[in-house]
Amino acid sequence: MSADIGLIGLAVMGENLVLNFESKGFTVAVFNRTTATTDKFVQGRASGKNIIGCHTLADLASKLKKPRKVMIMVKAGNPVDQTIQALLPHLEKGDIIIDGGNSHFPDSTRRMKELEAKGFLFVGSGVSGGEEGALKGPSLMPGGSKEAWPAIKPLFQKIAAKVEDGSPCCDWVGEEGAGHFVKMVHNGIEYGDMQLICEAYSLLKGLLGLSNEEIHKVFNEWNKGDLDSYLIEITAEIFSKKDEETGEYLVDKILDVAGQKGTGKWTVEAALDSGMPLTMIGEAVFARCLSAAKDERVEASKILPGVTANFKGDKQKFIDAIRDAVYASKIVSYTQGYILMRATAQENKWTLNYGGIALMWRGGCIIRSKFLGKIKEAFDKNHALGNLLFDPYFKSAIEKAQHGWREVVASSFINGVPLPCISSALAYYDGLRTARLPANLLQAQRDYFGAHTYERVDKERGKFFHTNWTGRGGSTASSTYIV
Hints:
By secondary structure, the protein is an alpha/beta fold.
């Protein structure tokens, strides 16, 4: 029996992807570095299925139809490079290596170039949806060697999640590391979405004093409207879950220290490299960092002065305002993510289908939501759309939500409730709609102490000037550049 695809790495995602492939009619050859893991899987969940267990990479390669297609599901970084190097002696030119882990996109660009130079094809594919998505239908974001796409397209689109009209949440993303780059931005947006929900929870619980059952009902209600999404749905379920040991609500028993695996940080680093204002996702990453400083926060809570939260007003109206604030901030987060994608695509000379990316995210992945359909519609209407906020739908949505958004931010400051993402999203929005920012003073300061020069409003753009502010300096100015 020969296999349609091979998969290396039988952890949670790997196992479930294998079962997904097999359930769609494909035969899969599998390998894990620990042979006992392979045997356990083949004799357990894979028993009686068209899944071939292999104890060596040579055996795996011998079982595959040509051109061979091998998907690697191991930890990002050196383990991927080590696996590729161990696999290459058993492959032939034209064979396809697919990295389905959370690799950093520059690594995928490097691997593609190195492997193509040796005659192989490389695909770096984002895979989103977690354990359930991998098993039932993930969002897949492949990029790399374009020649590989016709060979893997039937497999990938068959196992991917489908939207209402049957379209698969998988299409070719672009060249080099574009697939992993888009997955990285997805994860950054995921950081933002999760933090926005946490900030809403902080207001509902800490300021309004709602019970867990009441919060459960609020999120259930929000999931019926514009905020309809996987994350809102599971959040509602979380607030109804009781701890089997104590019988109390489980969410209250969980330590307030957030973990992270690095993709959010990579997204912010990419924004800094491109000079893009990814402020909301940046705040979401830093919010996790601050949560990790638990001991310091506990100490600070005892000694630093503040205010006591004391809400006075109509609770239901404020709950509606919180919903509006979350929705408006979500629009800003996606706006910033798409601006980063466009800037990085231009830098790397990638051709990205922005509406298609929204479609890939509509099903299977963690950020899947009704909202993404509106993004696809926006890019379908205007392929050159530079900023989502300029689309009529999103402009109108912000206009409707703006009053509640501002009310929530103002109340949070007055009551001492931290809202890093909601407030930074509003600051970005107000900054974007301000035709003249105070950066003119900043440039004057830079020129004063460092002769960094400035442009003038009454002269053409691109012409720079220097002033001898003190009368003691010379006429020599620094060269002008932007990092």
